[in-house]
Amino acid sequence: MSKYNRNYIVDKTFQWFAIFCTAFGVLSLLLFLGNICFDGIGRINWQFMTSLPSRLPEKAGIISAFVGTLWILVLTAIIAVPVGVGAGIYLEEYAGKSRLFDFFEINITNLAGVPSIIYGLLGLEVFARLMNMGGSILAGACTLSLLILPVIIVATRESLKAVPKSLREASFALGATKWQTIRMQLLPAASGGIVTGIILSLARAIGETAPLIVVGALAYVPFVPTSPTDEFTVMPIQIFNWISRPQKGFAIDAAAAIIILLLITFVMNGIALYYRNKWQKKVKW
Amino acid sequence: MRKREKIIKVLLLACGVVSVLTTFGIIWILLSEASVFFKTVSIKEFLTSDQWTPLFADKHFGILPLLAGTVLTSGIAILVALPFGLTIAIYLNEYAPKQLRKVVKPMLEILAAVPTVVYGYFALTFVTPLMQTVLPSLSGFNALSPGIVMGIMIIPLISSLSEDALYAVPKSLREASYGMGATRFQTAFRVLVPAALSGITVSVLLAISRAMGETMIVAIAAGQQPRLTFDPTVPIETITTYIVQVSMGDVERGTIEYQTIFAAGLALFGLTFLLNNISFWIKKKFTRKYE
Amino acid sequence: MAEKSKMVEKESLIAENVNVFYGDNHVIKNVSIVMPENSITAFIGPSGCGKSTFLRLYNRMNDYIEGFRKDGSIIFNGKEIYSKDIQLEELRKKIGMVFQKPNPFPKTVYENIVYGLRIQGVKDKALLDEVVESTLKKVFLWGEVKDQLKKSALALSGGQQQRLCIARTLAVEPSILLMDEPTSALDPISTAKLEELVFELKKTLTVVIVTHNMQQAARISDKTAFFYMGELKEFSPTKQMFTNPKEEITQNYITGRFG
């Protein structure tokens, strides 16, 4: 009986330890959001949203970084979505089980594990230097597109895989070609998963800092970029820049900018989750 | 009609080829720039010298100090993330009521969605000052607090992959253990964890690889002083931080400084590539299909 | 040992007015049954009749199923097994279970057998060795596996695995053994061996076996309970049930008119 009690105590102790661990994860998140809000919420105002960066923390603003982030977001989406979805379709529907397919597959899993800063080095050499884009928005967007490509490819493949075979067969049986089947049946049926994957990957892209720094995005951009060939900065780099300054005022600016960056990230994640749930509810195979 | 189908297929294939070209591109640029670097600096010096001072007048090119920084911060991160992540995985799998699980999982996933620059801010302005109250000798830049924060960041990576692995253990084994009078704790550690060991190992390897490639947290909070030490309280520099440090300045192509970031990048890529592939191999080889 | 078997005789298992719900599904309807000791009782009935659910009530394996609810009482040894102060793990050591499919742990044969003792904290190597040998002999497996005790249990055949699972359960000396269609995944020869074993086991313990195979019930059990749509329709000595059932619906089932 005593052995039993010991086992019971171990079990209960572990349960409490586990609750502590889980709470630790969740609480550190809350603590951490609370801490940042406390530091930065008071700094967020119209002036901060619409001003260019400045040497004086109280005059600085995030307009150039904000616009830079928007540019990057849009251009990255334009480049990465068609290529990623296309590659996903090819692998899932066309490639078949071949050596080539295995190679593609290993390659994509590997790419997903490459540190983002290495993509920065690739972008620096290929886009900024070889293709002569310099530290432009376009070079940054191309680099981030390659970075999120594996995520979009995997999401596309998973969603296509989930479409039941019967739908394919029904379409083929009616005389549709392969592409017609994909375009008119499979893609609409898989769209929920694909869109979720795209939004999540873009949310990741706008949080990326290191690869853009390496490609040559600037830390100090006293103008609002107006074309893809302009030099630029993005919000994470602006935050990094402010954190690195010694004056206390810039730390507050950084916290304020973090709140805005987090808002954008969470909203995108929220949309993705909402979309996924809605899609999962609607489609019951 | 036929032709159109053919064209579409070729276009889609081209999209797939982009991903292959990316891999080749990465390997090619790292090797080509590094090979120029190794014309000036011997591989022996790169691998054995205990100083990394390419930006100083007295230049040394030993990767060891940067490597030590990378290993140290990642090591601390894993020491934090593994016990927490695995415990959370076991808790969510065996103990937690379904409703709680539904709330906790997405919350943990938010941890992974937070941009890393934000974690860097947290490490520098919150964790370091907090640690300094307990450990007064801790410098403002150190390996400890970015390591811990990085650990918190990768908890969801370990917990969700480990949970998948635990979940994949067939219900029949769980029932057998409970049926014999085992507690949840005994079932978890004597049956489920051993059965899911390969999956858990994979999660840890991927987490280490992720931590080694992580840049902003260490760039912000660990300092920029390459030194060969495993003392977590002093400023250090990781491979990734060095690359950022050089990139923030204006470095001309063709200079030795420019080449160093590719040599450092090659070392980092090699390490993470190795870890990732070991984990794929384990996954393939040891994923036992029950039933 | 002698003392222990005397105690076993006194242990009783009584269910009274038991109802089980899974969410809104009423799957067991007002069942009362007293298990005869040192005998084999077979539960038969068509798929989904609740026989497995009812069996799993005895060691509370249904607790893990979403939406599970029960009322009525199940008394083991004079104690309600669903009461708050019952020690679940202790209960399961006394009421062992063998499952439909063999489910050895992915460990060695040896470690499978001693699992139950190890979790109770037994470390004495000599004792463990002895238990391994004696329980493997009880299930007629010793001769077949004595040279592969350190090999993975997954390398054994299906029939051997199932007997190993029984041995594993016997190692903690339960007084009641629940078997949930233990031969459904086995070939005829393994099935025959297992039936022989079950027959042997009733000398020392009470066996409750769920089976979809009426020949099996007729061959090995002393009493048979027929479940239909969640109700216990008939509970009689096996011979009587198969020759002269009380209820018409039992007659229909055992003569194969439905099921």
Biggest interface reads: A-B, 87 and 83 residues
Average pLDDT score of chain C:
88
Which structural class is indicated by helix and strand composition of chain C?
A: alpha/beta
Radius of gyration of chain C: 18 Å
Helix content of chain B: over 70%
The percent range for strand residues of chain B is under 5%
Following the backbone from N to C, one meets helices and strands of chain B in this order, namely HHHHHHHHHHHH
Gyration radius of chain B, to the nearest Å?
23 Å
Protein traits:
A: 285 residues; mainly alpha; MetI-like fold; 11 helices; 78% helix; globular; C: 6-stranded mixed β-sheet; 10 strands; 38% helix; disordered N terminus
Describe the overall structure.
The complex is a heterotrimer of chains A (285), B (291) and C (259). Chain A is built from 11 helices and no strands. Chain A has helices at 2-40, 46-50, 63-94, 99-112, 116-130, 137-162, 165-173, 178-207, 210-215, 235-244, 248-282. In chain A, helix 5 packs across helix 6 (137-162). The longest helix of chain A has 39 residues, at 2-40. Chain B has a single domain, classed as Orthogonal Bundle (MetI-like fold), CATH 1.10.3720.10. Helix content of chain B is 76%, strand content 0%. Helices cover 38% and strands 25% of the residues of chain C. Chain C has helices at residues 2-10, 51-57, 88-94, 109-119, 125-138, 142-145, 158-170, 188-201, 214-220, 238-243, 248-254, and strands spanning 13-22, 25-35, 40-44, 68-76, 79-80, 95-98, 176-180, 206-210, 223-228, 231-237. In chain C, the strands form 2 sheets. A 6-stranded mixed β-sheet of chain C has the order 6-7-8-3-9-10, with helices on both faces. In chain C, strands 2-1-4-5 form a 4-stranded antiparallel β-sheet, covered by helices on one side. The chains are: A mainly alpha (285), B mainly alpha (291), C alpha/beta (259). Chains in contact: A-B, A-C, B-C. The interface between A and B is large, with 87 and 83 residues.
Describe the secondary structure blueprint for this structure.
The complex is a heterotrimer of chains A (285), B (291) and C (259).
Chain A (H helix, E strand, L loop, with lengths): L1 H39 L5 H5 L12 H32 L4 H14 L3 H15 L6 H26 L2 H9 L4 H30 L2 H6 L19 H10 L3 H35 L3
Helix pairs in contact in A: 1-11, 3-6, 3-8, 3-10, 4-6, 5-6, 6-8, 7-8, 8-11, 10-11
Chain B lengths: L1 H39 L2 H6 L15 H32 L2 H16 L2 H19 L9 H24 L3 H9 L4 H12 L1 H17 L2 H6 L17 H10 L7 H31 L5
Helix pairs in contact in B: 1-12, 3-6, 3-9, 4-6, 5-6, 6-9, 7-8, 9-12, 11-12
Chain C lengths: L1 H9 L2 E10 L2 E11 L4 E5 L6 H7 L10 E9 L2 E2 L7 H7 E4 L10 H11 L5 H14 L3 H4 L12 H13 L5 E5 L7 H14 L4 E5 L3 H7 L2 E6 L2 E7 H6 L4 H7 L5
